[in-house]
Amino acid sequence: MKKKVTLLDVAQAAGVSPSTVSRIVAGTARVSEKKRQQVEEAIQQLKYQPNLVAKGLVQGRTLSIGVLTQDIASPFYGAALLGIQEALRGTEYVPVFMDGHWKPEDEALALQRLIGRVDGLIIMGGHLEGKSLSALAESMPIVTIGRTIPGFEQHCATVDNYAGARNLVRYLFDLGHRRIAHISGPDDHVDARERLRGYYDAHKDFGMDIDPKLVVQGDFQEASGSLAVATLLESRTLFTAIFAANDQMAYGARLALYRRGIRVPEEVSLVGFDDTRNSEYMMPPLTTVRQPMHELGLSAATALLKMLNDEEVQLEKITPQLVIRESAARAR
Amino acid sequence: MKKKVTLLDVAQAAGVSPSTVSRIVAGTARVSEKKRQQVEEAIQQLKYQPNLVAKGLVQGRTLSIGVLTQDIASPFYGAALLGIQEALRGTEYVPVFMDGHWKPEDEALALQRLIGRVDGLIIMGGHLEGKSLSALAESMPIVTIGRTIPGFEQHCATVDNYAGARNLVRYLFDLGHRRIAHISGPDDHVDARERLRGYYDAHKDFGMDIDPKLVVQGDFQEASGSLAVATLLESRTLFTAIFAANDQMAYGARLALYRRGIRVPEEVSLVGFDDTRNSEYMMPPLTTVRQPMHELGLSAATALLKMLNDEEVQLEKITPQLVIRESAARAR
DNA sequence: TTGTATGCGTTATCAA
DNA sequence: TTGATAACGCATACAA
Q1: Do residues A200 and A166 touch, judged by C-beta distance below 8 A?
Q2: What is the pLDDT of residues B269-299, one digit of tens each?
Q3: How far apart are CA A44 and CA A11, in angstroms?
Q4: Is B9 exposed, middle or buried (0-12, 13-18, 19+ CB in 10 A)?
Q5: Domain for residue B331, yes or no?
Q6: Which of A165, A163, A138, A166 is nearest to A151 (CA)?
Q7: Range of the structural domain that residue B11 is part of
Q8: How far is the CA of A110 from the C1' of C1 (A)?
Q9: Cα A151 from Cα A326, distance rounded (Å)
Q10: What is the count of structural domains for chain B?
Q11: pTM of the shown model
């Protein structure tokens, strides 16, 4: 470890006061050209690197923002993280990622770690109840993706899961499907519930009843998609299409179908939700609903940055787009 | 924003000196049970939260570690991040992730941001040359995953890409394949070069020459896998198996094959490298070489933590395991 | 065992 | 435009 060179060293080397150096580095005030030259030269020579911790202490901030995800290894969250990084690029801020693993305890723990170490928070998904969220939002700048904070709606970038699902299922109806199975997500998951509701209401739109046997619950993981198909098949319920509540479960379903020699989309159509990175490379490419996670991450982070800068922000609810590929076809 | 309660406030409330409070919070010295009670009570009541920035300043550390990846949204890196988080759990440290996007400029930028804000670094992949890495490693604790720092081999968790590839190709030979195509990775990428070398030497092992037309270069992304298959097919070179240098390209290749009605593994066998999350759900499930990224992340972070604690560490080169699934079969 | 005093590296306040 | 000087919140050497 080399000895650290501080602002004071630079000041001495350049023959000016520390405050002058500080002003130059931060660009907060006008300084004579001559001194600027000297100081910058000294900075070069000494390879001065400002100590951000000290800066943080005096300014009462950490220059970092916290990001709470639920599964950092999933391409779904990954895309958002990319967007967040993009927004942070060129700023002084750095992201600290913590994962809730979809488990309330872990989520609480992660939050615990984050609070006090970051200037603002981006929260994605999770089980944290509205009240806690609101309380948190009182005490520090927070934006969410895919969740709503009661009383702070303008700080929440949400996706209209209901409309997305409803449109998707209507699309299947338009293709002539009448027996559409649904692999739902966990029922304590808002997004999952909303998608289920969209599925129901699309049926209503077409004046159809729903056979309860057609909806099987999964957990948003691939394996549960496979399992759900097995359940569906064993129940001997007729269906010509499957709507998986997310793409990961659709992959699992796809594999299960393949195992049984059921062709997609010739024999059954299969659609998902999210438009995860791999969906384009599923066989056949998956028809799904696109959640623009990259954009959401980008705009959430941008908004948070503004909030940290005491600006007003207004995030909105967006309706995700249908992405038509090849896994759904006209019903036989 | 509420007024912050500091250690001083606690001290006053408890009627003791600040240093006593500090000692109790940090647990660095024995304190009489009575005062401890008082102080802890005061902490509870005031909801005192230590300011980590101040702590960091006085101790000369940041209590965070930097993680440099190349594509945070890829399941490949994601698994490692999960491992890193697992290792950090229960410690005071928090991870700061930055992405190099496989681009030297971005990588340099990311590193720039990280240095000075973190106590140690985990570097995964990337283009940074050995000398720079070594220089960096002189100045701060660094461990790498998948790369070697000249002079600091014990701080590098590496995977024997060469052996992995060679074993994999030999497995194909054992299945009777003699015309094995290779979709290679970028040639400025060490891992890619090593895998190519394994491919070559497996041929040598079986006394076979290589038809240069059989190796097509990709860029580790899905699309390049599709493209490579097109190139291969157009060149009218005969092959009964394809070894893609990573799973992502294998997915692309798989889709291209499907498009042309070529069955896997009946007509051509397809294998990849990495064992990414989705490979198990490819159709058919992909035979590949497993890089234990989760474990690598875990052990790298654990090692870094030890280094930060002035302990010696010794990371090792591991040989990745062949994962036999269904995408490769006996040659016709 | 406890308290006092000092310093970590920076920004901000106030004079000059 | 510049320079002293006082914070920022905590840990620690030293004294008691």
Answers
A1: no
A2: 999 999 998 999 999 999 999 999 999 999 9
A3: 13
A4: middle
A5: no
A6: A138
A7: 7-59
A8: 36
A9: 42
A10: 3
A11: 0.89
